[in-house]
TrEMBL record, chain A:
Residues 103-138, 321-346 are annotated as: Disordered. It is found in: Cytoplasm; Endosome. Belongs to the VPS36 family. GO terms for molecular function: phosphatidylinositol-3-phosphate binding; ubiquitin binding; zinc ion binding. GO terms for biological process: protein transport to vacuole involved in ubiquitin-dependent protein catabolic process via the multivesicular body sorting pathway. InterPro entries: GLUE_dom (IPR021648), PH-like_dom_sf (IPR011993), Snf8/Vps36 (IPR040608), Vps36 (IPR037855), Vps36-NZF-N (IPR031558), WH-like_DNA-bd_sf (IPR036388), WH_DNA-bd_sf (IPR036390), Znf_RanBP2 (IPR001876). This is Vacuolar protein-sorting-associated protein 36. SUPFAM superfamilies: PH domain-like, Ran binding protein zinc finger-like, Winged helix' DNA-binding domain. Gene3D superfamilies: 6.10.140.260, Pleckstrin-homology domain (PH domain)/Phosphotyrosine-binding domain (PTB), Winged helix-like DNA-binding domain superfamily/Winged helix DNA-binding domain, Zn-finger domain of Sec23/24. Component of the endosomal sorting complex required for transport II (ESCRT-II). It comes from Coniosporium apollinis (strain CBS 100218). The lineage of its organism: Eukaryota, Fungi, Dikarya, Ascomycota, Pezizomycotina. Residues 110-123, 335-346 have a biased composition (Polar residues).
From TrEMBL, chain B:
One of its GO terms (molecular function) is structural molecule activity. This is Vacuolar protein-sorting-associated protein 25. One of its GO terms (biological process) is protein transport to vacuole involved in ubiquitin-dependent protein catabolic process via the multivesicular body sorting pathway. Its main location: cytoplasm. The keyword Cytoplasm applies. GO terms for cellular component: ESCRT II complex. The keyword GTP-binding does not apply. Belongs to the VPS25 family. It comes from Coniosporium apollinis (strain CBS 100218).
């Protein structure tokens, strides 16, 4: 199954797997299967993550949202659009995912697919999801070579060598000429260079008009070769630029102005293509899936898609753990390693008592040293061991925060936890442009906020008693972003006001004084009043601390905003606003005394009002 | 004029602390003002008071609950009286003199009502077409059992004026010795 049903978060965005990060969002996207439109999948958001390409429908997101695992993607094509035909990105499934008789036969890229579909699994690595495929019909041919640093002999990179997963465990063959094992980094570099070279000859099976010859280059080459030609001055810009370096024209979606008849036309949902009438979205025989970009954003989507396909973060998820301390440390670096991952590791010694603990600590430190040392030697090597380094960094961070006397407030702790967990950040550069760029940013931010608030693991709203002021939320949210891509107050307020429109589970509420607060949709005024009333009822049985002169068994006693804040975990500002709300609804009445404002059950409305004179008339 | 024979039994809400803070919310405030109006009228009826002075009453038991340590401020008390005097409050009070706004009539029975009560008494005792002095009406033993016994002379005059207008009575005589004849 190429297209799968997609799980959505409370805010109707794709729920991400651990380690998955959001790369790009674009609205006004339609979905094709083969050359047919998929019914009910013609107006939605496209989300590109490090692991998947997702389509979330605008109308019925829970029903018509699908995802496509990038690991199942064999290759991708870019079609720039022509006259009234929107730009499209085509994704082809891997051969094993395709029906046996596809019109195009075996994909051309198989010759270069050593990295895409490893056919022989090294014995040390098990359980990687990418390895469960049937072998490709054509044996992979490797073209990558590494030059021995000792004797300069040009050796082939082993076919099963994968630069994304390689680490100190990976067995490396010695140089064919001198028999000395190469350093890991050396081979990784050579393999990556080989991959980027191999990418170039891959040709799309169906030649298309307006096909950008640069589009099929890998990201590494793109970094060197500028590919975005400015539509105005034809200057070749670096692909990561949004505006032309020369003339400042927007590069993001640079449709020909003559073709762009109107905003409405560029966003049209009804496009002339035929619809697919059967509902077999999840059938096995998908030949390819097309994303049609009706409001631009296709170029950035394609760039990031290619980046994600090269980086293949999903492999990291199943990458082997940090090297064990009882392996000979530093083996890959000194070039004369004798270790054989499967056989040479000695039986781990069992440390007993304090000595054992100390030894274990020393080994752990040594191991950390090795990991950090090797990681920072080279950028590519850092990429291969990114997972370990991130784990280490998080561990150090938690140790650092523990040693700071626990001074950090709850919010700080929360932020340090969530900063790394906050994978779903919405940033302006993550979103496609086009006619609705600004509103797309705001609505994505709005969803992002709703997720941030309702995330049970963080429990931000719960910690604040189910209600918090918008200003507080803004501060916490921006701090959780770690100081980058901060949200402006104006955007923030706009995003918060979108909650109602997007039917998200949180709502923005404006108190009489103008204070804006955030609370769950299920928390209504009636519920607040009911809980206040229940509390005041309790006070009828609660013997007052001081001598009181009124009948407290009948009237209870007055409560201040401070007490209320304490009782319900609200801030004092929120508490007094809630009390005033209840007062306005007639549930409470106030007493302005020397010791401040107190609120009481409203006995005043239940008093007899008839006058003696009228009663006698 | 005042007869403090027994203590006035204050209603329970007289010792409800928020009763002494004028409420900002309209519906609650209306109910509160009505209760105050009710309380003031009942208090005056009990003590047979026809006029009150805000300044004097502010320290009295009506507006100042010493046991509770709460009092209705002069300003709020004035609000209450204003409300009582308004149409909404049933015109149960009236300022004495327009300027000072200190003394006020408490109409636990309005002059028209008093007129009705007196006319009914005259009818019941068969004193139509006889002449009675005003002093006789309020101070004689014959009226001791009546509510208008010991009534404020100014109020009595106002009430009789209403009867005169209706053509049911006639007042004659000079300032000191006024007489009234009922028809």
């Amino acid at each position: 199954m190429f297209l799968r049903q997609l799980d959505l978060t409370t805010a109707l965005r794709p729920s991400l797997l651990p380690d998955e990060t959001l790369l790009f969002v674009q609205d006004a996207v339609g979905l094709y299967e083969g050359s047919y439109k998929l019914p009910n999948h013609q107006n939605g958001h496209a989300y590109l993550t490090s692991h998947r390409a997702c389509y979330v429908d605008n109308e019925e997101p829970r029903k018509y949202s699908v995802a496509l695992e990038l690991k199942d993607v064999d290759k991708s094509d870019f079609y720039a659009g022509f006259l009234k035909s929107s730009p499209k990105i085509t994704l082809y499934p891997k051969p094993s995912k395709r029906a046996s008789l596809t019109p195009w036969g075996p994909p051309l890229s198989v010759s270069g697919s050593a990295r895409l579909s490893p056919t022989s699994t090294p014995p040390t690595r098990h359980g990687s999801p990418a390895r469960s495929f049937a072998p490709s019909p054509v044996p992979p041919v490797t073209t990558a070579t590494w030059i021995c640093p000792i004797c300069s002999f040009s050796n082939p990179v082993p076919t099963n060598f994968d630069p994304a997963t390689a680490n100190a465990h990976t067995p490396l063959p010695p140089c064919l000429a001198c028999g000395i094992k190469p350093p890991l980094i050396h081979v990784v570099k050579a393999a990556i260079a080989g991959i980027s070279k191999r990418q170039a000859p891959v040709v799309a099976p169906v030649p298309q008009r307006n096909f950008d010859p640069f589009a099929s280059l890998s990201q590494t080459q793109l970094a060197a070769a500028p590919s975005f030609i400015c539509p105005r001055c034809t200057f070749e810009n670096h692909p990561s630029l949004i505006a032309c370096e020369m003339c400042g024209a927007s590069l993001v979606s640079a449709p020909d102005k003559r073709l762009d008849l109107s905003d409405a036309a560029s966003r049209r949902i009804e496009s002339p293509g035929p619809f697919l009438d059967d509902q077999s979205i999840e059938s096995d025989s998908v030949e390819c899936v097309k994303f049609s970009f009706r409001a631009g954003g296709e170029k950035i989507f394609y760039e990031r898609l290619k980046g994600a396909l090269v980086q293949r973060k999903w492999l990291l998820y199943s990458a082997p753990p940090v090297p064990k301390p009882n392996n000979p440390p530093g083996a890959p670096q000194n070039g004369r390693s004798t270790f054989n991952a499967s056989s040479s590791s000695p039986i781990p010694e069992k440390g007993i008592g304090i000595a054992g603990l100390e030894r274990r600590g020393a080994e752990l430190r040594k191991n950390n040293e090795v990991v950090i040392g090797s990681a920072f030697e080279d950028l590519e090597a850092l990429m291969t061991s990114a997972k370990e380094i991130i784990a280490l960094a998080e561990q150090f961070a938690s140790q650092a925060s523990m040693s700071s006397n626990g001074n950090a407030s709850e919010a700080n702790a929360l932020i340090s936890q969530s900063a790394s967990a906050l994978g779903l950040v919405t940033t302006k550069d993550m979103l496609g442009s086009g006619s609705g760029s600004e509103s797309l940013y705001v609505s994505e931010l709005s969803r992002n906020l709703a997720e941030f608030l309702t995330d049970d693991s963080k429990g931000i709203l719960k910690r604040e008693g189910g209600i918090m002021s918008l200003v507080d939320l803004w501060a916490v949210f921006n701090r959780a972003r770690g100081g980058v891509e901060l949200v402006s107050p104006a955007d923030f307020e706009k995003a918060a006001q979108m909650w109602d429109k997007l039917k998200l589970p949180v709502r923005l509420r404006r108190f009489k004084s103008g204070l804006l607060v955030v609370q769950g949709r299920d928390r209504t005024d009636e519920k607040t009043i009911a809980s206040l009333r229940a509390w005041l009822k309790e006070l009828h049985f609660d013997i007052p601390k001081d001598e009181v002169t009124w009948d407290w068994t009948h009237f209870g006693r007055g409560i201040t905003a401070q007490e209320t804040a304490q009782r319900f975990g609200w801030s004092v500002g929120v508490a007094s606003e809630e009390l005033e709300m209840a007062e306005e609804k007639g549930a409470l009445c106030r007493e302005q005394g020397f010791d401040g404002l107190k609120f009481w059950e409203n006995w005043l409305v239940e008093l007899p009002v008839e006058t003696p004179g009228s009663s006698q008339q | 004029m005042t007869s403090t024979t027994t203590d006035f039994p204050f209603p329970p809400h007289h010792s409800f602390p928020p009763f002494y803070t004028l409420q900002p919310v309209l519906s609650t405030r209306t109910s509160q003002l009505a209760s105050w109006s009710h309380l003031i009228q009942a208090y005056c009826r009990h003590h047979r008071l026809f006029q009150l002075s805000l300044r004097d009453a502010a320290d009295g038991p009506l507006f100042y609950n010493r046991a509770l340590g709460r009092r209705l401020s002069l300003k709020d008390a004035r609000e209450v009286v204003e409300w009582m005097a308004s149409k909404e409050g049933g015109e149960r009070a009236e300022w004495v003199g327009d300027k000072e706004r200190d003394r006020f009539w408490v109409w636990w029975r309005r002059p028209e009502e008093w007129a009705g009560v007196i006319a009914a008494w005259v009818e019941a005792t068969g004193q139509k077409n006889t002449v009675l002095t005003l002093y006789e009406l309020t101070e004689s033993d014959a009226t001791a059992s009546q509510e208008f016994h010991g009534m404020d002379p100014e109020l009595l005059q106002r009430s009789l004026q209403i009867l005169v207008k209706r053509g049911k009575a006639q007042i004659f005589g000079s300032d000191d010795s006024l007489g009234v004849k009922f028809f």
